[in-house]
Amino acid sequence: MIEVSIVMPCLNEAETIEKVVKKAFSFLENNNIEGEVVIGDNGSTDQSQEIAMSLGARVIDVEEKGYGSASRFAIEASKGIFIITADTDDSHDLENLMPFIELLRSGQDFVMGNRFKGVKKKNAMPFLHRYVGNPVLTFIGNLFFNSNIGDFHCGLRGFTREAYNKMDLQTFGMEFASEIVVKATLNKLKISEVPTTVFPAGRTRKPHLRTFSDGWRHLRFLLMYSPKWLFLIPGVLCIVFGLFSSIFIFFKFWNINATWLAVTAGLFLIGFQFVFFFALVKIYAINSGLLRKNEGYSKLFHVFTLERGLLAGLIFLIIGIVLSIYTFNIPQELRIELIRYIIPITVSLTLGVQLVLFSFFFSILGINHQQN
Question: Hey, where are the domains in the chain?
Fold first, then answer.
């Protein structure tokens, strides 16, 4: 029975693949581990495949382009109980994997390498990656998902076959590196970290990683998987600031031009759009299996019901109608007074209609949950 599968994605790594495959097999042999080396080849046009196979590695042809695709297909084709992933550029310390194996054997589900706690080799990581990109994305990932990972994007990591199946990974590009950490956290897996040394890449060609575009893909993924930070928190801030600013301007607590009321009232309305999107996106993401169902999901339907939404919408519509009637008695020459009322009227009527429509849409999306 194969205990450990060392899995590596590959695209034109003929310069280094011999070294990494030999190091992987050397580790398995030196530690008496029954294992295999699996290469997920993403369409190499050099001799990468031939070199790997000549050394005893299994090569999986992956037509779907992307780091995530090559990794996922190779992982799914592997046979080990434990899976170690690494890169084929000879930057990972493949001869010192026992800390990963020991933690997995002891019951951990997911083990991350931490390059910042390991030995720092000169030129091992580009300046922007070491001091800007990775620390920023790691901070955001930990903030959004309440994880406690020191190096979100270390490619050297290990996990059990069972943990991989639970994570149900979906991405195909570089954001796969973020998704696997996020899904491990969301599924409440047992996660550990070990220091690891990163070396300068052994190839002479330019790396496939594109600093800014791939960095954006990681950030975009983190935002999309955290509707609370993408929609709810900005929405609540807009509502609070817009509401209080509008009240201060409407009742003349601030001595500023009443036309600013249009800006603050608009901000208030935008805030509600963010909150509406938060609720709808969260339901869709959970129903689609992108996010894990939690207690907050059930509470959402208990707190916000169709009847409560319709009542709230009706109240805003009534407020808008009452204010509209009141403005009939304001002389046309008092334009500033008209502006002070027309803007709240517009917001009330608009928000009332949106609440009614949102309530029905919200209830339709959650109809299966409500029936249960």
Answer: 4-224, 227-371
Say which DSSP state 320 is in.
H
* 214 Cβ neighbours under 8 A, 6+ residues apart: 173, 174
The predicted-structure confidence for 59-104, as pLDDT tens digits, reads as follows 999 999 888 899 999 999 999 999 999 999 999 999 999 999 999 9
**How far apart, in Å, are the Cα atoms of 272 and each of 4, 320, 347, 358?**
51, 17, 11, 11
DSSP SS3 for 85: strand
Closest CA to 353 of 341, 361, 342: 361
The CATH number of the domain covering residues in 4-224: 3.90.550.10
Could you tell me the strand order of the sheet in which 191-195 lies?
58-61, 35-41, 4-10, 82-85, 157-160, 110-114, 191-195
DSSP letters, 124-147, are SS-HHIIIIIHHHHHHHHHHHHT-
Helix (H) or strand (E) holding 59: strand 58-61
DSSP for residue 206: P
Contact between residue 215 and residue 115 where contact means Cβ atoms under 8 Å apart? no
Q: Please give the span between the terminal C-alpha atoms of the chain, in angstroms, as a whole number.
A: 43
Q: Residue 234 is encoded by which pair of tokens? A: 């900005």
User: CA 67 to CA 131: how far, in whole Å?
Assistant: 23
Say whether 355 sits in a helix, a strand or coil: helix
d(CA 344, CA 45): 64
Taking the C-alpha atoms of residue 306 and residue 363, their distance in angstroms, rounded to an integer, is 6
- Which of 275, 315, 314, 283 has its CA nearest to residue 299? 283
Share of the chain above pLDDT 90, in %: 49
Element spanning 297, H or E: helix 295-303
Task: Please classify residue 63 by burial: count the beta carbons closer than 10 Å to its beta carbon, then call 0-12 exposed, 13-18 middle and 19+ buried.
Answer: exposed
